[in-house]
Amino acid sequence: MKRIHVAVGIIINRQQQILLAKRHEHLHQGGKWEFPGGKVEIGETISQALIRELKEEVDLDVESTESFMDISHNYPDKHVLLDIHLVKEFKGEGKGLEGQIIQWVNSEELGSFDFPEANLPILEKIRQLDL
Question: Which PROSITE patterns match (predicted)?
Fold first, then answer.
């Protein structure tokens, strides 16, 4: 089974909103919402991968990240290891540089979005944050 290591960012702005991105329909779990991030390349730390991916995907200049949690999840066609970091120190407003829809949402709104199954523990832990 294919194994993918992904750096994921829970990006929180000054208004205490969280940035979401909608996956393109043709991708794995297409049409669902996610926390931005991407694959960790060989030789990169999680933080380095996340900083790179967030610049490439949503045009944010991230100053630092903080480990939040990690998740190992098996889908029928692949295994994902998600290394999730909080991102609170960044510059930029965020834009979908790859044509994806992005949206800043309040934490209490997260339940109204359709996320991949692997993201459900992230949503549960975010509920415990004081946002």
Answer: NUDIX, NUDIX_BOX
CATH label of the domain that carries residue 76: 3.90.79.10
pLDDT for 113-128, tens place per residue? 999 988 999 999 998 8
Q: Where in the sequence is the domain holding 51, given as residue range(s)?
A: 2-127
CA–CA separation, 120 and 38 (whole Å): 18
Long-range contacts of 21-24 (CB under 8 A, 24+ apart): 21/57, 21/58, 21/96, 21/100, 21/101, 21/102, 22/100, 22/101, 22/102, 22/103, 23/100, 23/116, 24/98, 24/99, 24/100
Residue 33 has a CB neighbour count (10 Å cut-off) of: 20
